[in-house]
Amino acid sequence: MNETPYHIPALLKETVDGLNIDPHGVYVDVTFGGGGHSREILRRLGTDGRLFSFDQDSDAYANRIDDPRFVFVRSNFKYLKNFLRYYHVEKVDGILADLGVSFHHFDVASRGFSFRMDGELDMRMNVKAPCKASDVLNGYSEEDLTRIFRVYGELAQPQKIARAVVVARDEKPFVMVSDLLAVLDRQLGREKVKKELACVFQALRIEVNKEMDALKQFLMQSAEVLKVGGRLSVLSYHSLEDRLVKNFMKTGNFDGVAEKDFYGNLIAPLRMLSNKVITPSPEEVASNPRSRSAKLRVAEKK
After folding, report:
1. Which of 5, 219, 236, 255 makes an SS bond possible with 241, Cβ 3.0 to 4.6 Å?
2. Alpha carbons 33 and 54: distance in angstroms, whole number
3. Structural domains in the chain?
């Protein structure tokens, strides 16, 4: 019987190509997961190249690579600068980030990331973190729940869902995925139920893991630690993530407002290599359907 893969990276070649690998360089993969991108980077590095790979999930640690050029950093990528300093690395030649969730998380019921299987409403990438999805559902105000369902889930009727959650938890607190599904079943439209369920679960996951805050911190630090000419290659799967990445790469800020110096030059640490986003081919989507929403952007340090 074939084992389910931990993860199949989307746009693997394109993402690593974006780094323009120097065989003697120092690189960072801030989202190690199953190690697919890291293995491809190592394949292109020479004997004196180095790779630091970050992942806050203890499950990913089991996938670490036995290679003298490789260092596994068990941490959130928002601590990029701190850990590079710990390893006496000031500047790097390239940084790769795949912001998608590993197949493993969706396919293991006990992690609570998927509505397809019953399990505890957890959704923490770092299982030592204090806040679970059940804590959000049981403790957040109706106003805050509405906000996360609207902003992170991009749902059409976020307040309706938030109200249903608040009413239901007064009778019975949320513990299991099935508890949430029982409430959502009465709120979501029949035609798009799977899509809307995915949006609710996505919103909770983003909130539990503070993903947008971490992404902002990572992007700002990446610009600091890249060498001039170094590359940043980022895969995103959510419109909010992609907007933050695009705005930062283009303007150096998250609002996307271009600021210029006295001479009219754009004040931004990076230069986007192309305004056109890279997406998977129809062939890749056919072989790996979970890659369909992947968007790749690449920038270079000025």
Report:
1. 236
2. 9
3. 12-103+211-301 (3.40.50.150), 130-208 (1.10.150.170)
